[in-house]
Amino acid sequence: MPANDLDVDMSELEKRRFTCDEKCGLCCLCQAELLPHEVDLFKRSYPNRIVMKDRPHRHVALALKKGEGPCDFLLQNRRCSIYKDRPHYCRQFPFHMYLGTRVQVELDLSCRGVWTDQGEDALVAGGQLVAENAEALRRTLQESRAVYREFEANCKEAGIYRPAEALRRDLAPQIPRFADVQYLARVLDLSAEEEEMEIPGDAGPEYPRRELEGSAMETGLESLSAEDVYSAPVYCDPVGRWNIFLAQDGGVEWSVMNDDGGLTPVRTIDPAQVKLLAPEGQGLDVFTSYMRTLNARDSALGYAYYLVDDYGYEDFVANTYNGTMATAALDLLWRASLIAHVRGGKLDRQGMIEGIIAYDMDRLDAPTIGAFL
After folding, report:
1. Is residue 223 part of a domain?
2. Would residue 178 count as lying in a domain?
3. pTM value?
4. What is the C-alpha to C-alpha distance for residues 367 and 373, in angstroms, rounded to an integer?
5. DSSP assignment letter at 64
6. Which of 21, 71, 131, 82 is CA-nearest to residue 259?
7. How many domains is the chain built from?
8. Is residue 281 in a domain?
9. What is the SS3 assignment for 278?
10. Phi/psi-derived region of residue 107, left when phi > 0, alpha when psi is between -120 and 50, beta in every other case
């Protein structure tokens, strides 16, 4: 069925192309869920290479090597052994379709192939995905809109509401300042106040540099925390190594996942030795562009809404949204500085891109009150 009756935003895809970086295979570390109509094929053809999962809901998924590594169908040359039969989950990558009050197609910027400016037109491919899934999108959008209506009503009743368009409009002019950790500290302080905040036009009082670096390190370590090493963030570097960074016992355990699912420890990184860097040259343009992308993403807004709901509607929506955006910027700067620390480099254009590659998949995995299809 045609999808022209759907409210769809694909602005993030404009002027972007994408291809598959054959060294990468990052998408093959995401355990692919099978759609109901795909289950029969895999039960018939590959019965020993699928598993039943209970979280976040009961579903059938492709098996992983050693139960925790890459997809069991990934060959040693990083090619898919069932490429023609690969499930929808794999075909959709690196696109994410988020449903809140509308459908928004977002692009996973941890995929190295989206930075090559080669291959398929992302806008065309995204439009095809929407058309192919129009019926499911209509059905799910009804549900997500109901959730959003309930959220808005709860916010208005609590006296903490501010419209999404106002949140984004107020933040947009100040986004270039988000590369300044002094300014981020000011935003975070204001977001913690009991009164509804307005985005400041300057950094205000100067904070001690050591205090700022300590806050950035704490934010970065929290985002690198996980139940186990296989649940920790993965960074696929330019030569295709799957680097895993796990915050543990005050340090960062750095390992490389092998193609068979095994782990090779590299070393323990002292986070205090990671110098918090500032974007420079074209790196500042890359950073600012990414923060503008976050400000336009419905899923980023949905994460702030999730926190408002989780905190029991006690904080102003503006405070929570601005606080989450400042935290994201601080987290990204520290993550990018960590990557620069291990690779040897700075936050120039390529250094900032590497930081985003190491960060964006985690950002897209954050909980929201909407739904990813």
Report:
1. no
2. no
3. 0.94
4. 14
5. B
6. 71
7. 1
8. no
9. coil
10. beta
